[in-house]
Amino acid sequence: MRVLLKISGLIDALNNGIGKLVYWLVLVAVIVSAGNAVIRYSLHISSNAWLELQWYLFSAVFLLCAGYTFQRNEHIRIDIFLGRFSKRVQAAVDIFGIVVFLFPMSILIMVLSWPMFLDSYMTHEMSSDAGGLLRWPAKILVPAGFFLLTVQGVSELIKRIAYLAGLIDEPGEKMHGHS
């Protein structure tokens, strides 16, 4: 189990690093959006590429930070019910949710989105909008984001099993809002 906990730590470090790096894309998106608005209204020049770049940046933040959000236990859940139970029950419910809901959903989306990315990449798919961007950079975000979410699910599963086995005190920074 110690090896699995080390793997969990590596996965946590990966998603933590990506999450902190991707934070900067929010600033880039704000700058692109503001710059696009200023140029469009002051110089009456516009390009669909700037709008699409904003969408790509938002997609990158949303998809690439899903694993980071899960690691930090800041994802949406129904704590009004689960918060009434012991941490052991919460961990057992988390294990069930990860195995029964998270893994099938995230693996399915990851697998089904990969061919769409490959097709887009191989055909050099472009946006149908005038002045639009290549589509594959946006399409790779889907399998990449769900890969990061899936491996974070593996990490969280390891931590919860280790917690129930008495090998660690608590399976994360926060567990259902109770530190």
From TrEMBL:
InterPro entries: DctQ, TRAP_DctQ
Localization annotation: Cell inner membrane
Alphabetical UniProt keywords: Cell inner membrane, Cell membrane, Membrane, Transmembrane, Transmembrane helix, Transport
GO terms for MF: transmembrane transporter activity
Chain segments annotated as transmembrane: 21-41, 53-70, 91-116, 136-154
Self-association and partners: The complex comprises the extracytoplasmic solute receptor protein and the two transmembrane proteins.
UniProt record similarity statement: Belongs to the TRAP transporter small permease family.
Main function: Part of the tripartite ATP-independent periplasmic (TRAP) transport system.
Protein name per the record: TRAP transporter small permease protein
Organism encoding this protein: Azospirillum doebereinerae
Organism placement in taxonomy: Bacteria, Pseudomonadati, Pseudomonadota, Alphaproteobacteria, Rhodospirillales
